[in-house]
Design goal:
Strand order of the largest sheet of chain A: 6-7-8-3-9-10
Number of strands of chain B: 14
Number of strands of chain A: 10
Strand content of chain B: 15-25%
Shape of chain A: globular
Helix content of chain B: 40-55%
CATH topology of chain A: Rossmann fold
Distance between the termini of chain B: 31 Å
CATH superfamily of chain A: P-loop containing nucleotide triphosphate hydrolases
Number of domains of chain A: 1
Shape of chain B: elongated
Helix content of chain A: 25-40%
Radius of gyration of chain A: 17 Å
Largest sheet of chain A: 6 strands, mixed
Number of helices of chain A: 7
Structural class of chain A: alpha/beta
Largest sheet of chain B: 10 strands, mixed
Structural class of chain B: alpha+beta
Strand content of chain A: 25-35%
Largest interface: A-B, 28 and 27 residues
Number of helices of chain B: 12
Oligomer: heterodimer
Order of helices and strands of chain A: EEEHEEHEHHHEHEHEE
CATH class of chain A: Alpha Beta
Radius of gyration of chain B: 30 Å
């Protein structure tokens, strides 16, 4: 797997349409959308429900393919990769943070964080070491042996973030990372994301409904009716 | 390859570790497969038991001679002169008492079954003294041998167990005369254990058969001596007989019963198996549905579809294996050695036999369970693997 070119724009989305089919009905979610995200940016994507925020996030993360247009990450077109290559690309370059954490209930926090490393050739001891570092970064070393049911919502999300950064991905994609948390826990998560962006230079795209969360980002874009704008549409 | 194997191991391990969370539906599928395997092995063990009984009756170097055109002793008839010529034929082994050949008479009497009280056709065989030399595994186990020339009888262990009134000391009515039971014999688990034996001469008299018999059982001097024995009898113008190796005769005798029970058992197993497949399908669709978030997340993280398919199939096969082992074990505990009687369609008489749950049947049962598991897991596995990741994540 080659390293990505991060010299200029890390993400370049050009003329992207996304159409979903529901029976005979076609739903146009994104229409001719263009977006460039420079390396090291913390971008917040806002917009009403159904505006296509998560769809755009999925396209950039290689979880979905556009109906038209191209998606380049680090100079590499990902919209034409085979499922197999796309899966390997995601494992190497994308860290995913979900609204509902999506942790494996049968695994401890440590083992959950190690999960993406199973897709690498690292030895078991190296995996354990890297997972411990990731847990330390998110401040959860003392809870490494606990299972998700034994962790609070905030702790589960921090475990999710540790899992997302453990492979040192190029891109961190967060879909409503504070959507299931109270204000205090949400703020802690946002502090963490901000630190990852500022101190470790991680490029972050965060989908959110929360204006306070968006305020932590370096740039906010608004998605409405399949188009991006720099200000909210009334 | 290493990466792929480690993915399989990891995803399958999550699947197995989360099984307790789905124990209700998993147990239901497993119990369904247990029932199918237990019934299948149970029914097929009847056919195996009948086959074993027939095979146990066979002496390697033995031959049987019937009248030409007869398929069973019931349809055969041989005169006194015929049996004398047969006994003197080349190839027949000899001992101190002369040729080891036993002319025998075969009649059917009615006796009630112990289990149901209904009448069954019980085979009664009239024998001469060489009958015991022909059947090497014959052994008296209780009482004594009948007195030659008297209305006494001995009974096989199978016959005593299945039919009423055959205890030593009791009497049964045969041809309007009372015959006391004086002994019980074994015959290596063979067909003779279903029979009642009496002196052939007394039976001839009771049934007004003159000096006629129905078969001659002969021990030959060697396995290869059969060719000479057969050629000698079939070329003798005084005889019109059909010599057969005993092994061939019993194979033909058991074919109808064996095929009927095996066919019936297979039909029952297939019908029940179909039901179990739907049970397994339902369970695995439920399992996949319950693991939807887990599967979608793993695939989003970069795990490939193949390991997901294998993990779902592994779970299904594990449940099937557990069900199969349990079913096979239950069948073995419940049926192996269980004695019963069925009708031998060739002689229209009852054969007693033991259900035979052997290793081959147990393996068949477990393989059948695995097929159920494979079919039941395949479609849910494919569905889990084919669902687009983004769509699966949206449905969480």
């Amino acid at each position: 797997m080659t390293e990505l070119n991060t010299d200029n724009s890390l993400v370049r989305v050009s003329g992207v349409d996304k159409v979903f089919k529901r029976g005979s009905e076609e739903i146009h979610v994104l229409g001719g959308l263009d977006l460039e995200i420079p390396n090291g940016e913390f971008l917040a994507l806002m917009g009403p429900s159904g505006s296509g925020k998560s769809t755009l996030l999925n396209l950039v993360g290689g979880l979905d393919r556009p109906s038209e247009g191209t998606v380049e990450v680090g100079g590499k077109r990902i919209d034409k990769l085979s499922e197999r290559r796309l899966a390997a690309w995601r494992a190497r370059h994308v860290g995913l943070v979900f609204q509902f954490y999506n942790l494996m209930p049968v695994l401890s926090a440590q083992k959950n964080v190690e999960l993406p490393l199973l897709l690498t050739r690292l030895s078991a001891s190296e995996r354990k070491k890297r997972a411990a570092i990731a847990l330390d970064i998110v401040g959860l070393s003392h809870r490494a042996g606990h299972y998700p049911r034994q962790l609070s919502g905030g702790e589960q999300q921090r475990t999710g973030i540790a899992r997302a950064i453990v492979t040192d991905p190029t891109l961190l994609l967060c879909d409503e990372p504070t959507g299931d948390l109270d204000r205090k826990a949400g703020d802690e998560i946002l502090d963490l994301l901000q630190a990852l962006n500022k101190e470790q230079g991680k490029t972050i795209i965060m989908v959110t409904h929360d204006i306070h969360a968006a305020a932590r980002a370096t740039r906010t874009l608004y998605l409405n009716k399949g188009q991006l704008s720099t200000s909210p549409v009334d | 390859m290493f990466n792929w194997l480690s993915q399989i191991f990891a995803v399958t391990s999550f699947s197995m570790r989360s099984l307790p969370q789905r124990k209700g539906s998993s147990l239901a599928a497993m119990v369904g497969i247990t029932g199918v395997v237990a019934v299948m092995v149970g029914v097929l063990s009847i056919a195996q038991g009948v086959l074993r009984t027939m095979e146990s009756s066979v002496g390697d170097v033995n031959a049987i001679v019937l009248r030409s055109g007869s398929d069973s002793e019931m349809m055969s008839g041989l005169g006194g002169e015929d049996v004398r010529i047969i006994a003197e034929a080349p190839g027949v082994a000899r001992n101190d008492n002369g040729a080891v050949a036993s002319p025998e008479l075969f009649v059917i009497i009615n006796l009630p079954m112990r289990s149901t009280g209904t009448d069954a056709n019980v085979p009664m065989r009239g024998v001469q003294s060489q009958a015991i030399s022909v059947r090497e595994n014959f052994q008296m186990v209780e009482g004594r041998m009948f007195e030659w020339g008297l209305n006494e009888l001995i009974v096989g262990t199978g016959a005593r167990q299945q039919f009423a009134g055959l205890e030593i000391g009791s009497t049964i009515e045969v041809s309007q005369e009372q015959w006391p039971v004086v002994g019980v014999f074994e015959a290596g688990g063979g067909l003779a254990e279903s029979e009642i034996w009496v002196d052939a001469a007394v039976l001839q008299s009771a049934y007004r058969r003159g000096n006629s018999f129905q078969s001659v059982y002969a021990k030959l001097s060697s396995y290869d001596a059969f060719e000479e024995f057969r050629d000698s009898l079939t070329s003798d113008p005084r005889l019109n007989v059909k010599p057969m190796r005993e092994v061939d005769y019993y194979a033909a005798q058991s074919t109808t019963v064996y095929n009927m029970i095996t066919g019936l058992g297979t039909i029952i197993a297939v019908i029940m198996g179909l039901g179990a497949v739907f049970g397994a399908l339902n369970t695995m669709y439920t399992a996949v549905s319950a693991r939807n978030r887990e599967i979608a997340t793993l695939r989003a993280l970069g795990f490939r579809s193949g390991p997901v398919v294998i993990s779902v199939l592994s779970e299904s096969l594990l449940l099937a294996l557990a069900g199969g082992l349990l079913g096979a074990g239950l069948a073995w505990l419940a049926f192996d050695g269980f004695r019963a009687a069925t009708l031998n369609w060739s002689s229209f008489s009852a054969i007693t036999f033991s259900f035979d749950v052997n290793a081959s049947l147990l393996i068949q049962g477990i393989v059948f369970a695995m097929i159920i598991g494979l079919v039941g897991g395949l479609f849910p596995a494919i569905r889990a693997a084919r669902q687009p990741v983004a769509q699966a994540l949206r449905e969480l």
